[in-house]
């Protein structure tokens, strides 16, 4: 079996315990230890004239961590990746900023990564690049003469051509994409969006099965919806029953139902509309006041980007307004927490929540929706309220699907979920759980790598 090389912005260190590292990090680490391999990424450090990467080994896996020049790192991460590509791919053109200096910095970081990675590569390695921070990496590696298999997985949505064309560097970015052998996207809609751009704008040709020809390049674009480690979540959720943490949670609820939301504090996650919908639910369904508590867990993210600071202030104000308006001396309607939790604690909270509320304005997949489903008690499961604009909505058809731009519609869905009979809840949960159990993080990983291994054979 060929050696696997993974490239991602952040690298999960071998010392990070499974309970803390995300499901994706754990699955990638497993794939690396099975095949033997290398995980390459940013060290998290900046310095002028950065030296070659620090390389160390743990078991069958080597890790290589590259420092970056501070100005390049800013232009790459806060600039082009998160100031341009993130809003673009989440359909937020009003928040998109494009500066040539950022685009150049983004390319410089990718070229730098390619130069430091190349000496660590063997010709028959399989290289798997993760996410929008590194779209030009394959092109840079090819320039340096690497001819082996390179795959790319895009964790966020791929926008339709009308939106994608707003990006001044759209043509260059798709030329970069064409240097991969396999491009993985989250959903069939994403695949259609990219293929439509390629055939209509870039004058490429499309073959059945996602085969693409663009200039002298041949590659495939395929949907691989990402999953979770369902078994681990089921186990954690079951193990939480009766433990001290669960007791504390139940005591604090004093018999009231719980609705839970878990999202990074990010404008793609639709948090202000979710809060507004909860306020509207309390206003228009006064019979539920004092009977349901909502807990929104929203760890801080990208705090160096201005839009995220403004969002944080907005949410603090909205949470304060809802609690000011509806709280009783013995009931706080909205608990709002900015801290991270261990997977076992999240599983306990999910299991005790009668509603899971996942209402992003756009989301590549949304793993929280799947985790919530996996953590439920099959006899008395909660209801998932899910945005139709999350990739997960394709698979989780047992959820109550909502339009996150329709605040009153979401409030009505909360009411419907809260009053849903147990038979319907079980039926909907079973539909969702079948998908969560079948399409796991492991099958996702194996599926992508199996196709990438055969990529070179595809066009004969
Ligand atoms: P994210 O935008 O980060 O991921 P999501 O898929 O929901 O969104 O994953 C978040 C993960 O972080 C979940 O596993 C969740 O449990 C965890 N998490 C969130 N809050 C936490 C907290 N307070 N403590 C501990 N853990 C917490 C991007 C894309 C998504 C895509 C994923 C994977 O934006 O659309 O589903 O990558 O491809």
UniProtKB/TrEMBL annotation:
* InterPro entries the UniProt entry points to: Glyco_trans_20
* Gene3D superfamilies (alphabetical): Glycogen Phosphorylase B
Source organism, top-level taxon? Bacteria
Show the Pfam families listed in the entry: Glyco_transf_20 (PF00982)
**Similarity remark:** Belongs to the glycosyltransferase 20 family.
**Which named protein is this?**
Trehalose-6-phosphate synthase
Source organism per UniProt: Ancylobacter radicis
């Amino acid at each position: 079996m060929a050696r696997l090389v993974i490239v991602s912005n952040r690298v999960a260190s071998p010392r990070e315990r499974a309970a803390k590292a995300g499901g994706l990090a754990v699955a990638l680490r497993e794939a690396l230890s099975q095949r033997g391999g290398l995980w390459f990424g940013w060290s998290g450090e900046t310095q002028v004239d950065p030296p070659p990467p620090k390389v160390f080994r743990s078991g069958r896996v080597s890790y290589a961590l590259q420092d970056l020049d501070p100005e390049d790192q800013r232009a790459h991460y806060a600039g082009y990746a998160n100031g341009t590509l993130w809003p673009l791919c989440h359909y937020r053109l009003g928040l998109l900023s494009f500066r040539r200096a950022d685009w150049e910095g983004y390319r410089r970081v990718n070229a730098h990564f390619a130069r430091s990675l190349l000496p660590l590569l063997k010709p028959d390695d399989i290289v798997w690049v993760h996410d929008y921070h590194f779209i030009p990496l394959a092109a840079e590696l090819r320039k340096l003469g690497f001819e082996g298999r390179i795959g790319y997985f895009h964790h966020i949505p791929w926008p339709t051509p009308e939106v994608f064309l707003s990006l001044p560097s759209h043509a260059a970015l798709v030329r970069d994409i064409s240097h991969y052998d396999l491009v993985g996207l989250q959903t069939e809609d994403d695949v259609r969006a990219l293929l439509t751009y390629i055939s209509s704008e870039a004058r490429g040709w499309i073959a059945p099965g996602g085969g693409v020809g663009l200039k002298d390049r041949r590659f495939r674009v395929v949907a691989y919806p990402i999953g979770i480690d369902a078994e681990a979540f089921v186990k954690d959720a079951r193990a939480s029953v009766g433990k001290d943490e669960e007791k504390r949670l139940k005591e604090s609820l004093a018999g009231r139902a719980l609705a839970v939301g878990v999202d990074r504090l990010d404008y793609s996650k639709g948090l202000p509309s979710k809060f507004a919908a909860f306020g509207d639910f309390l206003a228009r369904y006064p019979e539920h006041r004092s009977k349901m508590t909502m807990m929104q867990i929203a760890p801080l993210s990208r705090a160096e980007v201005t839009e995220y600071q403004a969002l944080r202030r907005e949410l603090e104000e909205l949470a304060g307004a809802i609690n000011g308006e509806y709280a009783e001396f013995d009931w706080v309607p909205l608990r709002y927490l900015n801290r991270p939790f261990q997977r076992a604690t999240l599983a306990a909270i999910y299991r005790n929540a009668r509603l899971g509320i996942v209402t992003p304005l756009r989301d590549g997949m949304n793993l929280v929706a799947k985790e919530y489903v996996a953590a439920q008690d099959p006899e008395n499961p909660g209801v998932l309220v899910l945005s139709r604009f999350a990739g997960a909505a394709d698979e989780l058809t047992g959820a109550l699907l909502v339009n996150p731009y329709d605040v009153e519609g979401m409030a009505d869905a909360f009411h419907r979920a809260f009053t849903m009979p147990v038979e319907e809840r079980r039926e909907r949960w079973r539909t969702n759980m079948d998908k969560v159990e079948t399409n796991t993080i492991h099958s996702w990983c194996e599926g992508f790598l199996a196709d990438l291994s055969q990529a070179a054979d595809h066009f004969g």
